[in-house]
Fold:
Amino acid sequence: MAKGYLVAHVKVHDKDGFEEFRILSLPIISKYGGKALIRNPNIDLREGKNAGLVIVLEFESIEHAKKFYESDEYTAAKTIREKACSTELVLVEGI
Structure:
């Protein structure tokens, strides 16, 4: 079965708010079987405009990634994130 991935480009404008989101989201990610593969603000932007933090989370499957993203716990944390940063986020199935 192919893995599921959450890929996000995050432009933080409220560091304290984003830190609150990060602290809240870590146990939720673990609860849904996710693990962080990439969390790096030092990107080498070659194309596009988003020069923020890059995050890649891996889940056992795309279904697990969707359950995480659609969970009540993550929805509550996401509300905090939305106030602290702008985000481009996709869920994608691996090959």
